[in-house]
Structure formats: structure tokens, C-alpha cells
Design goal:
Blueprint (H helix, E strand, L loop, with lengths): L2 H7 L2 H8 L6 H8 L8 H15 L3 H5 L3
Length: about 70
């Protein structure tokens, strides 16, 4: 459903309640965007994990989720 259609049937507050809890951080978005297409290749997976670790390490909010 498009945003305009949703707002035609619901309030702005309902849209906010729908979107805010599911919003991704920039780090989460980058991790999803840079995920390798061929996950069968072990070498590509190792490189991917290294890249993701570099993206995640500076992000305090992701580390706080595990505490």
C-alpha cells in the first residue's frame, strides 16, 4: 500500500506507529545493502564478515542491544 493510500484510511499517528519501531539505522541499512549475492562462496562470506565488522564496531547503538 502506498503512503497516500494508507493516510487516506488512517491517521498520521497510525503511520508513525507503523514506521518508527521498524526503522533501520544507517549501519543496518548498509549491512543489508552490501550483503553478497553469492553466499555459497566461503571466501566472499569471510570478506563480507570483515566488512560488516568494520561497519558495526563503531556503532554504539548496535552494541547496546546486546547488553
Amino acid at each position: 500500500m502506498e503512503t497516500e493510500q494508507f493516510l487516506g484510511h488512517n491517521s498520521k499517528e497510525a503511520l508513525k506507529l507503523l514506521l518508527v519501531p521498524g526503522r533501520m539505522t544507517a549501519t543496518e541499512s548498509n549491512i543489508k545493502h552490501f550483503k553478497p549475492v553469492n553466499s555459497v562462496n566461503l571466501g566472499a562470506n569471510i570478506v563480507d564478515v570483515d566488512k560488516r565488522a568494520q561497519l558495526i564496531a563503531p556503532d554504539q547503538s548496535i552494541k547496546d542491544h546486546n547488553n
